Amino acid sequence: MEQIDMFDIINTKNEIPDKKIPKTAVLKKKELWCPYCSKPVIFTADRVLGVKRCPYCGISNKDYNVKMVNDRWIKR
Ligand SMILES: [Zn+2]
Fold it and tell me: Which top-rank group of organisms is this from (predicted)?
C-alpha cells in the first residue's frame, strides 16, 4: 500500500481567510502564512503570471488577504 499524506493532497481552502497569523505559528525564512490553508507555506514563483503562489491552494501573493495577514513580512 502506498502511503499518502491526506493533508498534503487535500486543498483546504478556507471560505473565510485568516485575518491574523496565530500567535503559536512560527514562520521560517521565506515562509508566508497562507490565510486560505491556515498554515505556513513557501510561495512558489509562477513564471507565466509573474506572481508567487501558494503550492496548495494556488492563491497568489497579490491577493488582498495574503497581503493583510503577512503584513509584517511582505514589503510594500
Ligand atoms: Zn494556500
Answer: Bacteria
